[in-house]
């Protein structure tokens, strides 16, 4: 059961969320991001990946341990865990030197 004041707070919060349009990346930007991901994987350098989200972008920091150009997948090692990302969702990459 939800109390009326909690319900109103939830409605207000949902109303304050605004969708963010997906940025269009030029082919040159995509190529540069791919090169940075390859450097992270080959040199074991930490990288921060920014992922597009409808309600806000997310950032993950780790080392690239796999790239699959056919499926457009990036595997990022996050400490003792890992995540798979679709390259099409990545809107930013920066190396942490």
Structure summary:
The protein is α+β, with helices and mostly antiparallel strands and 97 residues long. It is 31% helix and 35% strand.
Polypeptide structure, described:
With 97 residues, the protein is of the alpha+beta class. It contains two helices and five strands; from the N terminus they run ααβββββ. The chain has helices spanning 4-16, 27-43, and strands spanning 47-51, 58-68, 73-78, 81-86, 90-95. Strands 4-3-2-1-5 form a five-stranded antiparallel sheet. A hairpin with a 6-residue loop joins strand 1 and strand 2 (58-68). The longest helix has 17 residues, at 27-43.
> Structural class of the secondary elements?
alpha+beta
Tell me roughly what share of residues is in helical segments. 25-40%
Helix-strand sequence: HHEEEEE
Unreliable spans: none
Label the overall shape.
globular
N→C terminal distance: 51 Å
Estimate the strand proportion. Answer: 35-45%
Number of strands: 5
Radius of gyration: 17 Å
What's the helix count? 2
- Side by side, the strands of the main sheet go 4-3-2-1-5
* Biggest sheet details: 5 strands, antiparallel
Mean pLDDT: 87
